[in-house]
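=== RUN LOG ===
request id: a7f3
mode: sequence -> structure
chains: 1
length: 130
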Amino acid sequence: MKKVLLIALVAALVIPVFADDALVMPAQVFRTYITGAYATVNNAYDNDGKTVDISSNAVTVFNMGAALEVGINDWITGAVQWAPGYNVYSKIDGKDKANLADSADLFVGAKLQIVGPKVPVQNETFRFAV
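=== RESULT ===
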């Protein structure tokens, strides 16, 4: 029984690591995203974990984000992602001086395909990327 629980625990921790596909973008191909999100908050949780109505202090936010990805070569994709981005508009009812107009962190990264077609370790059946 302990072995089954150990295998289930290891599987639960390892499987999410492979949630993304192992594909990279072709060389010299760009992909851009612009996203908008509108959110309102009318409820909150009190100290006991129960939902309470806060419509007198409702929160409204409009956020814009963006991303740019580029295929550097056939096995490396570079990315700059700004999500959630910048709060273009925000309002908190009953709080005239409160402001949520702030920006989020910028993510800069790369995805390298190590096993697959047109990569250092060529294989048509399997793909592996980090």
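=== NOTES ===
Residues 114 and 129 are 6 Å apart (CA to CA).
The radius of gyration is 22 Å.
=== END ===
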